[in-house]
Every structure is written in C-alpha cells, then in structure tokens.
Design a protein that fits this description.
alpha+beta; 7-stranded antiparallel beta sheet; Jelly Rolls; 8 helices; 10-stranded mixed beta sheet
C-alpha cells in the first residue's frame, strides 16, 4: 500500500527537478529524497509504536517497570510473582532481546539471549555468549514440552557445578587421568573447560542402581562428543552428547546395539542440556527437550565408577565447557512411595532462577502427580517447597512458599483437581536433608516434597 506522505514527498521532488541546475544528477537527488522520506516515516512510526507500547505497560495490572540495569527491581518483582516490563532510563520499553538479557543478568545468568527468553549460559571470555536452546520460558505441557518424558532421579548420588573449586585449578571431585583442563569463571558461573581431550573419573558413594539418570550442561561446537562410559570389561554402556546430537550404544543378547539422532534448532553458541535415563536394560537419551535415542535389552556391569571424556574445542568457540553434572537414583512411582512412607521427594519440578515460574522440563513430573490424583480421588496432598541455604533466609522462605503454591495452582488449573484436596507450605532452608557445605548436598536440599494427608 502506498503511503500518502511518501507519495506527496515524491511529487514535490518531481516538481523541484525542473529548477535543478544541469550539473546536478536528477535521478540521484530523487533517490536521496525518497530515502529521507522513508526514514522520516519509519521514525514517526517507531515513535507511535513506542507510545502505544508504553501506554499498554502503564495500564497493565501486576506489571512492574524495571530499568535494564536495576537487577534488584527485576528479582523482587519475579519473587513476588509479578510480570516485569524492562524499560530504558527514559521509561520506554526495550527490545525483546534486551529485555531477556536484563532479566537473565538479574537472575545470575550470563551471555546473550536468543529472542524468546531462553535461559542464558556463558560462552568463553571474549567470545559471544552461549544460549540454552531449550526455551524454558514455555510453560509445562506446551509446545516442545508436550511429549517430553524425562524425569530426573530423586536421590542425588553426585552433583558438581564446580562452585567450590578455585579458578585455574583442576576440579577437586573428579580424577583427571589424561589431558589438560582447568576450572574457569565466566561472568560469575564456573565451568570445567578442556584445553585438550580430557579423561576423568567420577567415584560414586555406591554402585549405580538399576534405575538412574545422568545430566550435564555442555558446550562443544565442532568437536567430538561428551562421552560417558559405564561398566567394565566387555559389558559397558556408552552415553554421548554432541553439540547437536546425542545417542547410546552398548551390548545386548544378539550383539552390539546403537541408537542416535541429530537435534533440531541448536546453534554453535548454545549450552545444551544432555540427559540420560536408564532403567535396567532400557536407556533413553535427550538433548534439551528432544528425545534422540533409546535402546532396550542392554547388558552392562553396574559399578561405582563413571568415566567421562570431554573433547577439546578451538578457542574460537570458547573451548569445551561442562557444568551441572548430576547423577541420581530413579525412585519408585510416586503413588507407591507415598503408600510406603507417606511422603515422597521430587527434583523434577524446576523453576526459573529466583522466581516461582514453573519451567517446561517439569512436564513429566507434574503429569505423574496430576494423573495420580485423578486416579485416586480420595488422596489429599500437602505440597512442600524447600531451598538450600544460599542467599537471604527470608527471601528463601518466601520463594519456597510461592513455588509450592505455584505447583498447587498448576494441578488445580491443568488437571482439574479440587483445590480442597491440596495445601501448600514453604520451609525455605529450615529442613535440609543433606549438608549445605557441598554442591551435592545443596542439590539434594532444593526440592519439592509431597506429603500424604
């Protein structure tokens, strides 16, 4: 559609051409007039859009305006369950990307964010920030999370985010047997970074159970995979995770077995979430929200050792990065655990950092709880929120209450559970189940418990 102001400007330009000196290029002058007219129209359109957007923010309920640099404002609004409108110093709305970056920075995340509010994760110093491709801004059961079925183990056997290690040193909870690596701090988050291919061993406090999960955050573009080996001798299980693919291989009654697939929508800058779920001889493999491989009939020896090989990556891509390595025992079905002890702990309900917003990865656990309540109409539950002791005690208490209430509300609104069957409480860090002096202990203490009433 022709813009009337642009048409008028062009008409005026054509009139003026008759009085231009012969030495002036008529066509060039006309092109400049057209360009200037378009720029003026775009500028006025942008100003009108900003005016409408800012007016909408002003009228919206439960929306708190926070300047991009005001991390305290953003965190407090999220902790109170309120939406955040990120604005510049003049009070005008910023772009989607700038808004997502400001929120991520307030929550302790780093690096640049992809449009859509994906959780940020850092790349190497001096390189572009990496982003998580999983889009945790989507609520549970929506979009890519609709068919997601990974449920993390509920009893943590090992967890390391390298937070207790000194920058420049080797990690203290893994045994490096080959290669060169170090712990690095990238914008406040610690990572294990390999300079060459590294082989390391993790010793668990007990032999791997029949049902367990392994998780890790990994960044390794244009590299060999992050390899995880379980077992010994001829009976081993190999789980692996590339930047954009994942898989599993091992032995079965009829020989070697292998299953793998490439993932979609992942870039070189992404931190990817590698997840593996093993139940007896059945193994499933996930990258972010995509299931990429599964095998059954696997046979391997269960030991208390895990061999991990981290690839090398050119400095151009920030080196290979690894953090949040978690090994946990998978528990009984929720109803069986409730019937046996009257309470059950789950680590499968995840929240955005510093807020009560439930993340999409929580879909399978919430579905199990909802279906359990529908299948047992006489069952009543108390939902308890717990945190570790990091941060302000009062803030942790409030956050635990809000998170428990968010789970209660989700079950009522999504599964139609009668609200009278559910109550919620928050305990902050007052009831730890493990020592907060270690990363593994803190991981255990961050939990949601279901108590049978």
């Amino acid at each position: 559609m022709r813009h009337p102001r642009l048409a008028a400007a062009v008409l005026a330009a054509c009139t003026l051409l008759t009085v231009l000196p012969a030495t002036v290029s008529a066509q060039g002058w006309l092109d400049r007039v057209k360009k200037k007219a378009k720029e003026t129209i775009q500028q006025r359109t942008d100003q009108a859009t900003d005016s409408v957007t800012n007016a909408a923010f002003d009228k919206a309920e439960h929306v708190v305006k926070c300047v991009t640099s005001d991390k305290t404002c953003i965190k407090n609004a999220q902790a109170a369950g309120q939406a955040v409108a990120v604005v510049n110093a003049q009070g005008q709305a910023v772009s989607t990307v700038d808004s997502a970056n400001a929120i991520a920075a307030a929550n302790g995340a780093t690096g640049s964010l992809a449009t859509g509010g994906a959780t940020a994760a850092p790349g190497a110093a001096g390189t572009a920030g990496a982003t998580a491709a999983a889009a945790p801004s989507q609520p549970p059961g929506v979009g890519a999370w609709l068919n997601y079925d990974f449920i993390p183990g509920d009893r943590v056997l090992f967890f390391d985010d390298f937070s207790g290690d000194r920058v420049g040193d080797l990690p203290t909870h893994e045994d490096i047997t080959e290669g060169n690596a170090t712990v690095v701090d990238i914008n406040g988050t610690k990572y294990f970074r390999s300079a060459t291919r590294v082989t390391m061993w993790i010793t668990l406090p007990e032999v791997l159970p029949q049902r367990f999960t392994i998780e890790a955050d990994f960044h390794g573009p244009h590299a060999n995979p992050l390899d995880i080996y379980l077992g010994d001798g001829g009976k081993t299980l190999n789980l692996w995770c590339y930047q954009d693919a994942a898989g599993v291989s091992g032995s079965g009654p009829n020989g070697d077995k292998r299953s793998t697939q490439n993932a979609q929508g992942i870039t070189d800058k992404d931190i990817v979430h590698c997840r593996f779920m093993v139940d007896g001889g059945y193994a499933k493999v996930y990258l972010n929200n995509q299931r990429l491989g599964q095998l059954n009939g696997l046979v391997f020896t269960h030991t208390n050792k895990i061999k991990v090989e981290v690839p090398s990556v050119n400095e151009e891509y920030g080196g290979a990065l690894l953090t949040n390595f978690r090994v946990a025992e998978g528990g009984k079905p929720l109803y069986d655990a409730l019937a046996a002890s009257g309470r059950v702990t789950t680590h499968g309900i995840l929240f955005a950092t510093g807020s009560a917003t439930i993340q999409g990865e929580s879909t399978p656990t919430l579905a199990e709880i909802g279906q359990m309540l529908k299948a047992h109409p006489d069952l009543k539950l108390e939902i308890d929120g717990h945190t570790d002791n990091v941060g302000d005690a009062a803030a942790n208490q409030t956050l635990s209450e809000q998170r428990a209430a968010a789970v209660q509300q989700y079950l009522v609104s999504t599964y139609g559970i009668d609200a009278s069957r559910l109550t919620s409480k928050g305990f902050g860090a007052s009831k730890p189940v493990a020592s907060n002096d270690s990363a593994t202990g803190r991981q255990q203490n961050r939990r949601v418990e279901l108590v049978k009433l």
